[in-house]
Known about the structure:
Layout: E1 7-9, E2 38-41, E3 47-52, E4 58-65, H1 79-87, H2 98-106, E5 112-115, E6 120-127, H3 131-143, H4 151-170, H5 177-185, H6 200-204, H7 208-218, E7 224-230, H8 234-245, E8 268-274, E9 281-287, H9 296-307, H10 313-321, E10 328-334, E11 339-346, H11 353-370, H12 374-391, H13 395-409, H14 414-424, H15 427-437, E12 444-450, E13 462-463, E14 515-518, E15 524-529, E16 535-542, H16 556-564, H17 573-582, E17 586-591, E18 596-603, H18 607-619, H19 625-642, H20 646-659, H21 672-677, H22 680-690, E19 697-702, H23 706-719, E20 740-745, E21 751-760, H24 768-780, H25 786-794, E22 802-807, E23 812-821, H26 825-837, H27 839-842, H28 845-857, H29 866-878, H30 885-894, H31 898-908, E24 915-920, H32 922-925, E25 938-939
Parallel strand pairs: 3-7, 8-12, 8-13, 15-19, 20-24, 20-25
Antiparallel strand pairs: 1-10, 2-3, 4-6, 4-7, 5-6, 9-11, 9-12, 10-11, 14-15, 16-18, 16-19, 17-18, 21-23, 21-24, 22-23
Helix pairs in contact: 1-4, 2-28, 3-8, 9-15, 10-11, 12-14, 12-17, 16-22, 18-23, 24-28, 24-31, 25-26
Amino acid sequence: xxxxxxxxxxxxxxxxxxxxxxxxxxxxxxxxxxxxxxxxxxxxxxxxxxxxxxxxxxxxxxxxxxxxxxxxxxxxxxxxxxxxxxxxxxxxxxxxxxxxxxxxxxxxxxxxxxxxxxxxxxxxxxxxxxxxxxxxxxxxxxxxxxxxxxxxxxxxxxxxxxxxxxxxxxxxxxxxxxxxxxxxxxxxxxxxxxxxxxxxxxxxxxxxxxxxxxxxxxxxxxxxxxxxxxxxxxxxxxxxxxxxxxxxxxxxxxxxxxxxxxxxxxxxxxxxxxxxxxxxxxxxxxxxxxxxxxxxxxxxxxxxxxxxxxxxxxxxxxxxxxxxxxxxxxxxxxxxxxxxxxxxxxxxxxxxxxxxxxxxxxxxxxxxxxxxxxxxxxxxxxxxxxxxxxxxxxxxxxxxxxxxxxxxxxxxxxxxxxxxxxxxxxxxxxxxxxxxxxxxxxxxxxxxxxxxxxxxxxxxxxxxxxxxxxxxxxxxxxxxxxxxxxxxxxxxxxxxxxxxxxxxxxxxxxxxxxxxxxxxxxxxxxxxxxxxxxxxxxxxxxxxxxxxxxxxxxxxxxxxxxxxxxxxxxxxxxxxxxxxxxxxxxxxxxxxxxxxxxxxxxxxxxxxxxxxxxxxxxxxxxxxxxxxxxxxxxxxxxxxxxxxxxxxxxxxxxxxxxxxxxxxxxxxxxxxxxxxxxxxxxxxxxxxxxxxxxxxxxxxxxxxxxxxxxxxxxxxxxxxxxxxxxxxxxxxxxxxxxxxxxxxxxxxxxxxxxxxxxxxxxxxxxxxxxxxxxxxxxxxxxxxxxxxxxxxxxxxxxxxxxxxxxxxxxxxxxxxxxxxxxxxxxxxxxxxxxxxxxxxxxxxxxxxxxxxxxxxxxxxxxxxxxxxxxxxxxxxxxxxxxxxxxxxxxxxxxxxxxxxxxxxxxxxxxxxxxxxxxxxxxxxxxxxxxxxxxxxxxxxxxxx
Length: 944
């Protein structure tokens, strides 16, 4: 699991007394593997794993190099990750940016990848007719790449990686946690003692020869795995693999790293005064076991048991009893050489971290005394089983699972092993893991507090060493990746690799069969049956959201959504949450401007019981005063935490500029003051008058028939009644009379977050799909887009930039957004503006051909997962679109021409009438932005 994926539990414990719907018996171990595979090893040592999955006409390919930051050396950290970036850029036979262009042409998901401590993974999902092209391209990367790397290319990509570091670590609240923790947990010569991103100093010191040596040592077939999952012919696929990869020479032998655990001889306490954090946070970390260890599943279930509400003892102590926070995170970070596990709490405003640690320790002491019941262990197992099915619900998820398993364990059956180990864990195993790794064991305690609140820091803590980057105008030289480019020396091959393979037969892309009915209470019910995995997902969408809030009581709709999952009339929150977990189910409520959506996933065998619980939640809410207090505290803490996020601040400034005094100028959650003032009567009144079943939509996808779904929701149709409601209003807004720049000051920010906004079409408008298609080349096509190619690949200003049309039922907006290096704020904003301004004029015939081809072919990937199928049903229902909307959009795409794109650009991309927001360091950047030509920036006061 990723260290960043900290699971959180937001529930409160209470005595169990009422009866919950009984889950069915756990399903037996699968008669066949969850992911059937065939493994071959080529003569050069390349390991190849194939999985046939004919559920959709798509194929996922993962090329895995068994090299992560743990293969680096002191003084040359960050190389594995830097190399991942370089690997996408060029190769001898694809040409510069060839993989991105190829992916766009064939309708692929876009080349992607990631580096962790142990390996680097390159991922791609494509329609099945493009498989041979992808194998040709990946082989070109592995064996025919290094001659294309020049000093100028390395220099530019170093700037991109540095921007990623600023965005993920330096300009984020709590962003320095992992650098601090890894350095403290491991000795300096341990390869886990530094982060994957590396240090700025090491990146700046990188040379072309360093890169070449890294490639020759690690990027060899005998240190790589190729994983293929999808609608494939195994014999033909093997022949292609042999052709394209077989003649790449084997490298020097590579040893598998041996385990080397993190060691703490005594508890360490560290603190950091965080310039970006708005709330105090503490993380406790214990050394545990590496991935694949026999005890792995027990350790994971242990930290679930400690932290997950409503009855986790640490959760209960922190959230319910001491009320120092609204959540507790627990996660296990198990890697190839070592593992650690952690608890994390972000405290409420003004809470000293010593109080938080005391609450955590009280929960740990309770667990040691009271232990774990078999019933609770089975609930935790059911949740993890459902999570596993969710993870392998797409061919992309399958190849990632297979890639990690084959690389780390040298066997591809990780899903089956995980499921078997999960089911075998006993209460005694969990308690043994607690005694061995947590109880009275040394640990690392890392506390972050807002820079102006040092009194909240952990007592007797050492100050962590954090390297801060200074903002210096002109510190980086302009980069030109074409500088010094000469004729590329081609590596000999037995055939002409410059010839791109032909596409296979065009895949048949059927739209999923949809069934529809209307329940007796006026709620529509639609569904798609899919039996690939034993799970079901469903949503209940109601036309009530922020637009129905009383302007004097912003946040009411949101708080109603928060309260719905906090128990029912006959069940406390603990009973309700435990009943859900026993079914392997999860439920959440999301509240937006126009609607509220109850989202549910469950094991298929427990679908009827899950629907019964959701029915009870919706028709018999508990309205508990203590739960309201917790929901308020959680919402206010969330608002305070969001105000440390540059992207959020930019969006809020744009809202205020667009909507001014409207209810939509607020966060959907309201303000801290408005949330604190809301009462139970306010919430009851809102739900009684706005949560109407008339026109509400239920959509279901998964291993369930139409008849079973109708039977399951029959009770809800009887109990949930009410009249139709008048429309709530509109999210549409008018373009400003002229472009204005707004600046929100974050002193010392290492990056500036830039957001450009103007009105766009509603989702159901005739222009919406045409606008989405027109935006593909501008900023919607990933690495193939013009904004990315110029701002990231051309200039190295940013790690990522995108433009998008966001269509809602009553209006829409067009936006361009990017976090950029602070000292090029003006230059980046100018370039973004100019690209958008000139887009219609510069759109070419080849751009049109690429747009049509990519979007048409990408349809093969659109309905693969249950989430995508539910999304299709939601799109049709929420925006009143025709059932054959895919056919309609395909026809619009076929008819797209340059004139239409130019009309879209004139209508929706007018840079003379837009809002531009910059969140960054005003002292160094605000004055410079006058050169944009829109006058002095409007300085925005701090959010209240």
